[in-house]
Amino acid sequence: MMKAKSISIFLSAMFIALTASADEGMWLVNGIDRQLYGRMRREGLRLRPEALYGGEASIADAVVAVDGGMGTGSMVSADGLMITNHHVAYGDICALGDDKHDYLEDGFWASSRAGELPVKGKSVWFLRGVVDVTDEIAAERERMRQNGKTGVMGNRRLFAMIEKRYSEQSGYEASCVSMWNGLAYYVYLYDVYRDVRLVAAPPVRIGAFGGNADNWNWPQHKGDFAIYRVYCSRDGRPAEYSADNVPLHPRRWLEISDRGVREGDFTMVVGYPGRTHRYMSSFAVGEKQNVRNPVIVEARHARMEIIDGAMRADSAVRRAYSDRYFNLSNYADYAQWENNCFRRFGVAGIRAGEETRMHEWICSDSVRRAKYGDLLELLGKAYAIRAEAVRERSWFQEAWISPSEALLVANRVSSMLARLRRENVSVLDPSCPEVRKLAFNRSKLGDNYDRGTDRRLFVKLVGMFTENVPRRMWGEYLNAEYDRFGGDAEAMAAAAFDASFCSDAGRYADYFSQRRTVDETAADPMVSLAASVSVMRFVQGVRAAGRAEGLDADSLERVYARLLHDFRQAEGVCQYPDANSTMRLSYGHVRALEPRDGVSCNWFSTAAGILEKASDDYDYRVDDTLRAIIADEGDGMVVNFITDNDITGGNSGSPVLDGRGRIVGLAFDGNRESMAGDVWFNGDHARTVCVDIRYVMTLIERYAPSDYLYRELSGR
After folding, report:
1. Tens digit of pLDDT for each residue in 558-573?
2. Rounded Cα distance, 170 and 550, in Å
3. Among 114, 337, 611, 622, which residue carries the largest CB count within 10 Å?
4. By the 8 A CB rule, do 228 and 616 touch?
């Protein structure tokens, strides 16, 4: 393995003083400096620095990115068992089921290794090293500038070149990332294993108990876990699925604690948080709050209503759309509660207050004043000018491009036709490779597609699009069809859907089994609609909004973020980069919650709450087996607990560790009072909701119909 270049000197400059909230920060696990480590020791950490990262077998070796960072998992046995959240596995659980096996409703418990289910397309990423490439990036960027190759794609080409270089040198998959808005660049090196098999998942009534109603809430009572096994070639290297592969023997696996936790206990979360924006200006916060989030909430709730009704009416639709519904509701609720937090805590005002101090700091130095003295004024103008264009783009993203599988298929057909026309191809022959690509495109209309549900989604959201987006953004065909139907957008959409070959898998396959012309294919009503509404029209609309006055909000925001970093550093505030799906560590404590005036919540929930909530409602069903377990174990059995660790999306499934590095729980959610956390961390109210690992082990031991898994996890 290549030796990673030390970055401790650079990082020590970032951690000047730990004056922020003690528990704030998603810290680079490969860059824990002496001051930060000392603080963690005082709070309860009992491990040496090399036990976290960089040692022969560190905790970082046991924590993995699931599907490149869609969630987090951790290795928990010498034979490749990996534990994560049920909701991280949700899509796999749905996809692996069929008419005979409903793993979402019934759960899945492999009785032996032979019964473990391969998951197509699954990947598990092990971090093997980090290299500081800041100087290399600067040198390559200068060479590109001299050769006139910077342009829009410059960074993408640069990163690809660096990744190729380090992948070839190291033998690992390389990912180049920017930190602190370009102040530093690192290459992360990974072993990526792609033979991953589902081992265990409780039924949804346990794994997602409380459903959407309890989401982002406290208290919760979810058994939110699932278990996979990672396989490899016989020499221990990553390999595609094969019956000859063997369970991976990881460098490190984590011990499962049976001790439980108490209020005030030190906790550490290691994982792959997705994206934060804690260097965002008050003007950007205002845009998110007032322009983007309201569109997201309105459009996604409309989609949720349609899908929920369809799922309640048909179990097959439930299997097909459960994963989609979960993702929709998760983000729609997040956007709604994020706005509630923005308003309640005055986040834009907090950031504006910081900007007042920053402006004074700028003006205290003549060089800074000359260069940045009008930055905040220009930012305010730039965001005000582009507000309407951003709103229109948001409606395009939420109501046009996303809701309908059939329209996605039509968009891909339209894009392919445009390329064929550029290449002067006029006829589509079934034997042509390009036509075969088009024919393959029908996968969107496969097992997880219900035509009736998709039709209702398409009709409803086209109506919302035309209500909220001005006609100048529609394109010629949509305008003409809208007028032809007398301004009845929903009738127009229904007719297009019914007549299109893009809305039915059988019609789609039949269509491309015959010789067709490009022109007749382009005349399909849904293909025509897709071609009429251009993404570039909306992208350029946002770009052009401030062009007349020479204002580009995105460029100014990048300048602002770097300057905010420098200002905070000057104030002695600890600096950690925004989350970007790289491995991070946060530390905190088990801590109760007072979410609102006069309301106090305990730091844990018990099985008594499961029985209190139990009903015939789909999300609150409790079966006889679980009732019997609760009766035997006692209704005081701890189910979930909360900590004040700093996490975000991507941390789902992260191990919650005690001071000695043992798993005490799995992080699976935040609380509604923490929903501004991607922009601003609220140390008083933000909580990480965790499933107690003892509850997980009880379910594995007593609920599962086999005991081989429990024996492996417990060492018995």
Report:
1. 999 999 999 999 998 8
2. 45
3. 337
4. no
Is residue 106, in this structure, part of any structural domain at all? yes
Overall domain count for the chain: 2
Q: Specify if 648 maps to a domain.
A: no
Looking up tokens 């998959």 gives: 173
**Residue type (1 letter), 346:** G
> Which residues, other chains included, contact 712 with Cβ-Cβ below 8 Å and sequence gap of 6+?
77, 79, 81
Pick the last residue of a domain from 254, 271, 305: 254
Q: Burial letters for 645-681: b for 16+ Cβ neighbours within 10 Å, e otherwise?
A: bbbbbbbbbbbbbbbebbbbbbbbbbbbbbbbbbbbb
Token pair belonging to 696: 């997980």
> Residue 1 CB: number of other CB atoms within 10 A?
9
The domain of 104 spans 56-254
Residue 334, both tokens: 């997040």
Alpha carbon distances (Å) from 204 to 47, 111, 666 = 37, 19, 17
Confidence of residue 151 (pLDDT cuts 50, 70, 90): low
How long is the chain? 716
* pTM score of the predicted model: 0.92
pLDDT category, 327, cuts 50, 70, 90? confident
Q: Which of 254, 286, 316 is the last residue of a domain?
A: 254
- CA 557 – CA 544 distance, rounded (Å): 16
C-alpha dist (Å) from residue 298 to 398, 458, 464, 648: 9, 15, 10, 23
Other CB atoms closer than 10 Å to residue 141's CB: what's the count? 17
Find the helix or strand (DSSP H, E) in which 545 lies. Answer: helix 535-545
Task: Write the Ramachandran bin of 600: left for phi over 0, alpha for psi from -120 to 50, otherwise beta.
Answer: beta
Average pLDDT, the chain: 92
The reply to whether 250 falls in a domain is yes
Bridge partners (DSSP) of residue 75 are 82
CA distance 709 to 409: 42
